[in-house]
Design brief:
alpha+beta, 9 strands
Length: 222
């Protein structure tokens, strides 16, 4: 089986989206880029019983090179994001409740929490376009530039990373921040972190990342 390890990872992540409540039924999709191939969830398949053999492998034109099932209807979206973001290796697209709710009332999710540094700051809401179309792929990939997360109007969310674990983690962060914002909004006017405050938070994040790496290096030498 071509890219068996990555297909298993995609299947496991799709199930994780379902059990975490980030998608319902067969909505949402997951992919990994492997060289000139994209390993992606199939269309209309129940994620509760998804197996690695159900996962599709397509080329950069969206043509199936391995697999017995039709690739996700959002394959054009995944391909467009990969094409315009060479550093991205994994994508998670969810139909989570709070991010989708945000998409119906805002043009961007403001910096309600410092954890949004991992998303690239405030998260834009891409214009609505019909699902599965090249038009949706174009507006979403454009809105994503310079960030690792985007919200799709009246649709859902999309997060990227260099691994599926990180992309899924960012999906969870985006949903949590969306929930925090909506909860705060129901009680008044939410305080939004300034660009300077977010920059300081990013510096602190970078500092602790460096400390963790240094600590790990020392432990490995023991």
């Amino acid at each position: 089986m071509l890219h068996e390890k990555q297909r298993a990872e995609v299947a496991q992540t799709a199930l994780g989206l379902l059990t975490s409540g980030l998608i319902v039924n067969t909505s949402g999709n997951v992919s990994i880029r492997v060289g000139e191939h994209v390993v992606i969830t199939p269309s209309g398949r129940d994620y509760k019983s998804l197996t690695p053999g159900d996962i599709a492998v397509v080329n950069t034109k969206g043509e199936v090179v391995d697999g017995e099932m039709l690739p996700s209807s959002e394959t054009p979206l995944h391909l467009a994001v990969y094409e315009s973001n060479p550093d991205v290796a994994a994508i998670v697209h969810a139909h989570s409740v709070y991010a989708t709710a945000i998409s119906t009332i805002l043009d961007q999710l403001p910096t309600i929490h410092y954890q949004m540094t991992d998303l690239g700051g405030a998260v834009p809401v891409a214009p609505y376009r019909t699902f599965g179309t090249d038009e949706l792929a174009a507006v979403t990939s454009q809105a994503l530039q310079g960030r690792s997360a985007v919200i799709m109007k009246n649709h859902g969310s999309l997060t990227t990373a260099n691994t599926l674990d990180k992309a899924l983690g960012r999906c969870v962060t985006l949903e949590w921040c969306s929930k925090v914002y909506l909860k705060a909004l129901s009680g008044g006017s939410p305080n939004i972190l300034s660009a300077d405050e977010m920059a300081l938070a990013q510096q602190q994040m970078d500092s602790f990342d460096a400390k963790r790496q240094a600590f790990k290096a020392v432990k490995n030498q023991v």
